[in-house]
Specification:
The structure is a homodimer. Chain A starts with a helix and ends with a strand. Chain A is built from four helices and seven strands, in the order ααβααββββββ. By secondary structure, chain A is of the alpha+beta class. In chain A, the strands form two sheets. A three-stranded antiparallel beta sheet of chain A has the order 1-3-2. Chain A has a single domain (4-132), classed as Winged helix-like DNA-binding domain superfamily/Winged helix DNA-binding domain (Arc Repressor Mutant, subunit A), CATH 1.10.10. Strand 6 of chain A pairs antiparallel with strand 6 (110-112) of chain B, so a sheet runs across the interface.
Chain lengths: 135, 135
DNA sequence: GTGTTTGCAAAGTGTTTGCAATTTA
DNA sequence: TAAATTGCAAACACTTTGCAAACAC
């Protein structure tokens, strides 16, 4: 597990004050394996970990971390926001039945020929979602 | 413009009764060029066309048409549902600034190597969204 | 006539906001 | 102590639902 100071520094360099809540959430988010999450699941994790954080603060923090490039938002469902601690370029399987996300193994998909952005615009990202249903 | 009977038949074959509302919406949806829309925009179009339809019925109809394969739902924004009258396999540009969608020209992008679906599951679709921002 | 569909208003869901109290620096 | 942050509850935007009246067949 990374040292406490790592999270502290990470939060500071995002221009944010390392509050108890942000430190606890950063530890949950970045302290282990990469993960996919929603505000609800992170809030539940915090509670399970006996960390007192309001849902509003979870939302604020998720957005602040996303703006700082520490998280990536994944849009797969019209009614829930997902975030990914892995901000590198990769694609997702979305299991519609249970609302779970997982990464598509890097070598198993590839995009040829990236389209040009219209004049005066830039491509922010190319998001690929492979929707999975039961056979 | 397609004849009235076309829409009537299209709705019937979806197992739905061709009500005044469904006919009017089908005409708006399928009577011209392919289009991208939300419940709100379709509702506004109906009003502009002097068609009295409630927003609830617009939502119901969009889902019924989607289930019947007449529309395709496009997920690009965590807080709004988009639909596309073009149900064939193609990808989208999403302009974050104004919430507009447009098709990616077919030849300008291509997916190599489609990943395998996990055991016992099937790939329902592979959705590609190219997010566009101002330069 | 029977079963389907509509429209309304109410309820629901996930998310954001306003603001006083608290915390950080 | 000045500025940032938190938590609550209220507000929000979009969508769904319950149900009586209207409609299709």
């Amino acid at each position: 597990m990374r040292p406490y100071s790592h999270f502290l520094e990470q939060i500071r360099s995002a221009g944010l004050r390392p509050t108890r809540q942000r430190l606890a959430l950063a530890k949950l988010l970045f302290g282990g394996e990469d993960r996919h999450l929603t505000a609800e699941t992170l809030h539940a994790d915090a509670q399970a970990d006996k960390v007192r954080v309001s849902l509003a603060t979870v939302y604020n923090t998720l957005h602040q971390f996303t703006d700082a490039g520490m998280l990536r938002e994944i849009v797969v469902d019209a009614s829930r926001s997902y975030f990914d601690t892995n901000t590198s370029d990769h694609h997702h399987f979305y299991f519609e039945k249970d609302g779970m996300l997982s990464d598509v193994p890097e070598q198993s998909i590839s995009i040829d020929k990236v389209p040009d952005a219209p004049e005066g615009m830039i491509i922010k990202s190319i998001d690929v979602v492979v929707r999975i249903a039961e056979a």
